[in-house]
Amino acid sequence: MQDNARSGVQAIARAGSVLRALEGAPEGLSLHELSAAVDLPKSTVHRLVAALTTEELIGTAPSGRLRLGGGLARLGAATRQALGHDLMPVLQQLHAELDETVDLAVLDGSVARFVEQLPAPHRLRAVSAVGSAFPLHCTANGKALLATLPEGDALALLPARLERFTPNTITERDELLTQLGRIRSTGIAVDEEEHTEGICAVGAAVGVTADGPLAAISVPVPTPRFRGAEDRYTEALKAAATAAASRLTPAASPSSG
Asked: What is the CA radius of gyration of the chain?
């Protein structure tokens, strides 16, 4: 019985290593390349690929190379929905306290993608569609997410040229890295009309793990309401990030004895 359990755990671990190898190869890998990447015999990798393909977790590119399958996208969408559900009380509390739009975004490749939004009740407000993708280098949620990553990983997510959206957009990598250092110290990222003129925002990463941040909460505010009230938004967001962290901390595992 214990041997069967160990064998099952080993198979799951190997399947995970196969999926992670394909995650880092969007163009796909041949079976030989995948075997080398995970340091397993081709026969073993072939069996794993067959099982994962049946579950639609691995697919085949037009070139015939192996790549991640559509089933993972569906699982990812379900995970994001669950994350929004778990954090909704925190988002609602922050929304009620500030009377402003509150967003929840996740790191999706090289963009910040909105998965939840509670719009402000004002006629003058900042809103974006759930599902929209935003650049990382000039948004509060994007910079908050970047700041949780090692410098090399953060740089790897940036495009070759940092696009200028407004006169305030940071387009120099060294300047951005300096700002990310400050964000790591304070826990709060600020967008001062860097993505959209007339809109400022504060953002904070939540659920940071060894694999990266789960999400970022941000509050976009029309500049006239933001100026002079920066501390109010910052302190409210810090409290919300702390509350979110407590909700995302896994419960202690029950004793196996």
From this structure: 21
Are 93 and 216 in the same domain?
A: yes
| Number of domains, the chain | 2
Express each pLDDT in 114-169 by its tens digit.
Answer: 889 999 988 776 777 778 889 999 999 999 999 999 999 899 899 889 999 999 99
- From residue 82, how far is each of 107, 214, 216, 225, 248 by CA, in Å? 15, 12, 15, 32, 11
Co-location of 217 and 145 in the same domain: yes
Express each pLDDT in 121-135 by its tens digit. 887 767 777 788 899
Best CA proximity match to 137, nearest among 173, 104, 166: 173
CATH number of the domain enclosing 9 = 1.10.10.10
The angle subtended at Cα 147 by Cα 141 and Cα 149, nearest 5°, is 115
